């Protein structure tokens, strides 16, 4: 996995939630390729173990742990395990998330709460339980919270999702200020993907179009809505996350990094 720029996060320990597939897996692979020891977590055990094995087979260092990000005890356990095995934590990528689409009039309170628990509560819990170990590690750290272009602008039939991702955006800025005031060297930023080819589109499409159980045509959607005319892939997001986690971004905190092919310009 090492390339000409290998080593940009060498020696760092990274935790990536939702790391079994999609953007999370892309981030885990990229960070490992650049020298980090990666702990990837998810509730998709088979895919998670496969992702960790793939990283190891390519020469990287990775391990998988089952982790429900809505469970505070699980967060405490995962972070304690990282401390016991690796002695430090330098990077947290709060990536785990779901997308539930459809009219807000039809959304159940249970679905609203489930989406909020994963997309927003999970980010809160990750920050709460990771910062103490980052501070103890003594080298500062980088927290990247995965938001969305839906956290920057409204979208019909995605009101609940937009609410969670908008919450992640401002939560990130507030925590960035708290860490800056503490002079702890921990930087906190959010990333806002646009139309990226990931499995989340299956659940979103199914809710917006009843009966649908396949990926929508992202190429056609991108040709119509994205100024650059093409969809993104997980590596596009992972490249941005890598930069935010590297020392190259040492003076960057509280930023919202938009990676969307120009989608939010319209």
Class by helix and strand content? alpha/beta
Distance between the termini: 37 Å
The named CATH superfamily of the domain at 13-17 and 89-261: NAD(P)-binding Rossmann-like Domain
CATH topology of the domain at 13-17 and 89-261: Rossmann fold
In CATH, the architecture of the domain at 13-17 and 89-261 is: 3-Layer(aba) Sandwich
CATH class of the domain at 13-17 and 89-261: Alpha Beta
Give the overall shape, derived from the CA principal axes.
Answer: globular
Strand content: 5-15%
Helix content: 40-55%
H and E order? EHEHEHEHEHEHHHE
Mean pLDDT: 94
Low-pLDDT regions: 1-5
What radius of gyration results from the CA coordinates? 18 Å
What strand order characterises the main sheet?
A: 3-2-1-4-5-6-7
Largest beta-sheet details: 7 strands, parallel
Overall strand count? 7
**How many alpha or pi helices?**
8
Per-chain topology:
Elements lengths: L12 E5 L4 H12 L3 E6 L2 H13 L3 E6 L5 H15 L4 E4 L14 H29 L3 E6 L12 H24 L3 E8 L6 H9 L9 H8 L8 H12 L10 E4 L7
Parallel strand pairs: 1-2, 1-4, 2-3, 4-5, 5-6, 6-7
Q: What do these coordinates show?
A:
By secondary structure, the chain is an alpha/beta fold. It has a domain at 13-17 and 89-261: Rossmann fold. The chain contains eight helices and seven strands. Helix 1 crosses helix 8, helix 3 runs parallel beside helix 4 (109-137) and helix 4 packs parallel to helix 5. The longest helix is centred in the middle third of the chain and has 29 residues, at 109-137. The radius of gyration is 18 Å and the shape is globular. It starts with 12 loop residues before the first strand and ends in a 7-residue tail after the last strand. Residues 1-5 have low confidence and may be disordered.
């Amino acid at each position: 996995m090492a390339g000409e720029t290998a080593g940009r996060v060498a020696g760092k320990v990274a935790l990536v939630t939702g790391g079994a597939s999609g953007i999370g897996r892309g981030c885990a692979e990229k960070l490992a390729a650049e020298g980090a020891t990666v702990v990837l977590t998810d509730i998709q055990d088979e895919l998670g173990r496969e992702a960790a094995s793939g990283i190891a087979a390519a020469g990287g260092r990775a391990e998988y742990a089952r982790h429900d990000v809505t469970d505070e005890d699980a967060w405490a356990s995962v972070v304690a395990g990282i401390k016991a095995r690796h002695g430090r934590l330098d990077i947290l990528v709060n990536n785990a998330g779901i997308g539930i689409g459809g009219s807000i009039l039809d959304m159940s309170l249970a679905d609203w709460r489930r989406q909020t628990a994963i997309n927003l509560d999970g980010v809160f819990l990750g920050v709460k339980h990771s910062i103490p170990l980052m501070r103890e590690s003594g080298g500062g750290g980088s927290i990247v919270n995965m938001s969305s272009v839906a956290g920057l602008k409204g979208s019909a039939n995605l009101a609940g999702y937009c609410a969670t991702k908008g919450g992640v955006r401002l939560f990130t800025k507030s925590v960035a200020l708290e860490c800056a005031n503490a002079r702890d060297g921990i930087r906190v930023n959010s990333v806002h993907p646009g139309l990226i080819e990931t499995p989340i589109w299956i659940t979103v499409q199914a809710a917006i179009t009843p009966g649908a159980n396949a990926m929508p045509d992202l190429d056609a959607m991108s040709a119509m809505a994205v100024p650059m005319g093409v969809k993104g892939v997980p590596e596009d997001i992972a490249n941005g996350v890598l930069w935010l986690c590297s020392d190259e971004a040492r003076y960057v905190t509280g930023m919202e990094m938009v990676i969307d092919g120009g989608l939010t310009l319209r």
